Description:
Layout: H1 2-21, H2 31-50, H3 62-100
Helix pairs in contact: 1-2, 1-3, 2-3
Keywords: Membrane, Transmembrane, Transmembrane helix
Transmembrane segments: 28-48, 60-82
Amino acid sequence: MVALVIIALVAGGFGAIAWGVDRYRATFGALLPAGAAVVAAEILWMVTMAAGLGGSSATAWIPWILPMAVGGAVAWSVAGFVGRSRHHHLVERTNQILAIR
């Protein structure tokens, strides 16, 4: 149970950092990359534990390190993709509104 909490906190921290350094962070909420990172990390932890990678001493590090790394990657990709696409749509919508006048 401690592993779940630590992995969730680290993945959420990566999500907060990804939101903080994104230049388009005004177009989406702070919890979006953090939530996506936590969900991805916890699902991967469950998959690695179900696969039996936490039982052996040679592979015990995989359920700890891999979900944190994947959570960070998911946070960065969600922040980058959502930020750019929403910014693009906002600029298009603003140009349409200004073209009407």
